[in-house]
Amino acid sequence: MVAPIPNPPETPPPYRILHVFRAPVGGLFRHVVDLARLQAAAGHQVGIVCDATTGGERAERALSELAPSLGLGVTRLPMRRNPHFSDLAVLRAVARRAEAVGANILHGHGAKGGVYARLAPVRSRPVIRAYTPHGGSYNYRPGTMLHRLYMGIEGLLARRTDVFLFESEYVAGRHQADVAATGGLRRIVHNGIGESEFAPLTRGPDPFDLLYVGELREAKGLPVLLDALARLRREGRPLRLLMVGSGPDAEILKAKAEALGLSEAVAFEPAQAIRPVLARGRIMVVPSLAESLPYVVLEAAAAAQPLVATNVGGIPEIFGTAATELVPPRDAQALTRAIARVLDEEPEACRARFAALSASVRQRFSMQRMGTDVLSGYAAALRARPQGAPARGQPAQTGMAEPV
Fold it and tell me: Of 191, 175, 165, 108, nearest to 138 (Cα)?
């Protein structure tokens, strides 16, 4: 009898992957949903462990639509945003779920998901522990007490990480500068988007002049955006702004808009699918104070939407050679000038400029490449493990077969 030929290293056996993260909202959730679909289509078994208290009906609907791709199902547990004693119970629950479904990949997303995936005490089998920060704790301002605290924690967790899958060169650089700890393999896997997101937009009737989509949180630079809008209106430009999203600072932002005399100029709407929203505005504004590689910028750029954004995090990676057009954060005057420049630009020149950005994004941020590169990262981590050695953070055992 002829022995079967083993799979070559670049063709891994089917994985059993658990994606672990906290809130099923925003770009992080979109990233996991896309990865889960790609991995399932490639023949792997995929499951999700996430928070049970956030996301609302939109998350429930997204998870229900994803369910046919999730051979390992969905597990939802209460998870706190900040460190809490309840994290110990979540760690045990993640470990139990990993053992119950026979997971051999625990992929943590975001700071909290990264803690759970790397510290969950899985005992029954070795697992590869992968980590994608999505900004997370790396977005704290360097030099602050919280930044030093969280970078110290990241340094400890690095020793339990088989492979870092950084979503941007920016976050990889922050890790090297602020953690620089020993740990697993390090790869940059940019967020990717699908071909349908490059379809031309059909502008709706009576569009808003400015558009913001994302969390309603001060760190997104929204007070600066409101200040810029007030300046533009004082200059005689009767602009209107649509803000789409939810977050802890919603009421504070509404109060600020009222104090600036913008109550009739600013509309607030809950989170919703982005492409129909893009069609309702002339210019997307991303005034963030910190970012990693935001999907909202990728999505707007892909659709050739006129776009004004700040020069933070991985946004320059998206803009590429056009990064000189980005504005400094926390600078209402610079943001005002940048918005006015797009408003006053000759229409054909504006269309050509953002069509060029769309073409550049199409070349560099492929969803298929993202999926392939993540699987390649898992395979490299498996190959890097010494023969017969346990995964990082795993106690040595004997007589244990390699996971398949």
Answer: 175
